[in-house]
Amino acid sequence: MAKQKKNIPGKRATLLSISRKAGVSTSTVSRALRGDSRISDATQLKLQQMARSEGYTPNAMARSLSTRRSNVIGLALGDLHNPFFPELLETLAMSLSRVRRHLMLLQTGPGTLRDDDLESILGYQMDGCIISSANLSSRAAEICMQHKVPMVMLNRVALNRGSAVSCHNKAGGMELAQLVVEAGYRRIGMIEGNIDTSTNIDRKSGFIEGLREAGIELVCQVPGRSTYNGAFAAMQEIVKRNPIPEAIFAINDVMALGAIDAARRAGLRIPEDIGIIGFDDIRAASSPAYELTTMSQPREAMVERAVKILIDRIENPALADEEIYIRGELKIRGSIKLGNISKPGMISS
User: Fold this and answer.
1) What is the helix (H) or strand (E) element at residue 43, kind and residue range?
2) Beta partners for 295?
3) I want to staple 13 with a disulfide (CB 3.0 to 4.6 A). Which of 34, 54, 219, 313 is the partner?
4) Is 61 a member of any domain?
């Protein structure tokens, strides 16, 4: 009795198996699947249909070995408790998908990213890296260069070397200061974030400079650690002051939400008793629960520019570094009294 040939489960279709079945070379199959014009339309169609019926999928690892490109972009993120960063991640993933790149998330946590941590991360097969962590060592760009991995800082300022794309945080801080002054506020306080980050430094300096141009000094500066809980505790301290500030600028939106909730817990009305503004325009900012007045970061424009800069340097590593600053947009909502603000088109949702 003749033995029946058994099918081998899980055996994967390859360029070689398809080429043998079709009676052509593997290079012909490869070119046909890429739509190479050197292969006739009829042959392309035949081989593409055969590949589909065989369940063929390209071997990304083998392709990366032959092309020395993985099409993988690493994203180094710090603490994800701030909703701005998951929203940034979502925008970046969509942008990279449009240019046929894959995203590898490199979660560094809230602590400082050490040099050896970064070197371990760069051991992965990545074409480039986008860094949006506040806690990078100053040698981040140099280490990336040593590994020949192009790098772009996103929502951060390059510390020593490297390209960077960021919101114009200082200009945004100045614009927010001008807004609260024009709205009629004079006793103004601030809840700070992490004091050594570029975003905190630039937003704070811009806001203070904007107030000083109007002859106003901050009545208080309280640390909020860039977190909801930190700002909640800061606001509990602020409301004990006599008199309390008329308005508070929180360096980021997640702290502004914590400040609003703490103020309400203390029996204060927003904006009747105290006005509160933020910076970022996270999704919760526009919710009816908060109606937060804030500076909206141009997230999509920042991501698109960062991706272009990175891919340009993957293709041409000799390109010079770039630092790009993009202006944000005021979003004026119900968390402040409008006062004397009456310019047409100034109020946005």
Assistant:
1) helix 41-54
2) 279, 330
3) 54
4) no
Q: How far is CA 238 from CA 223, 233, 244, 260, in A?
A: 11, 9, 7, 12
Q: Write down the pLDDT at residue 30.
A: 78
- 14-25 confidence digits (pLDDT tens): 878 888 888 998
147: CB partners within 8 A, 6+ apart: 119, 122
DSSP codes, 60-102? HHHHHHHHS---EEEEEE--TTSTHHHHHHHHHHHHHHHTT-E
Total domains in the chain come to: 2
Quickly state the pLDDT bin for 31 (edges 50, 70, 90): confident
Give yes or no for a cis peptide into 243 (omega within 30° of 0): yes
* Residues spanned by the domain of 237: 169-297
| Cβ contacts of 178 within 8 Å, gap of 6 or more | 210, 213, 214
Q: Are residues 280 and 309 in the same domain?
A: no
- Confirm if 166 and 324 have CB atoms less than 8 A apart: yes
Q: Establish if 284 belongs to a structural domain.
A: yes
Residue 189 and residue 145 in one domain: no
